[in-house]
Design brief:
mainly alpha, 4 helices, about 60% helix, about 70 residues
Length: about 70
């Protein structure tokens, strides 16, 4: 199971690789700097639409796949 912190670390690593500041990402996505910072740290409950907006802006694909059966 993936954790919030892992997703946040991937987002931060991509942002840093692309040399995009939090301020620039906030301007590009319309998401506040504090929200972006919390997302990168894996803190709080980020809305799915915010997560999709940020990952799309950074050229990341969010994929959902099953990791176990429910029965």
């Amino acid at each position: 199971m993936v954790k919030q912190e892992e997703i946040g670390a991937l987002i931060k690593a991509r942002r840093m690789k692309e040399r995009v500041s939090l301020e620039d990402l906030a301007a590009l996505t319309g998401v506040g700097i504090n929200t972006l910072s919390r997302l990168e740290r894996g803190v709080g409950n980020t809305r799915l639409n915010v997560l999709l907006t940020v990952t799309n802006a950074l050229g990341l694909r969010l994929t959902v796949t099953p990791f176990k059966t429910l029965s």
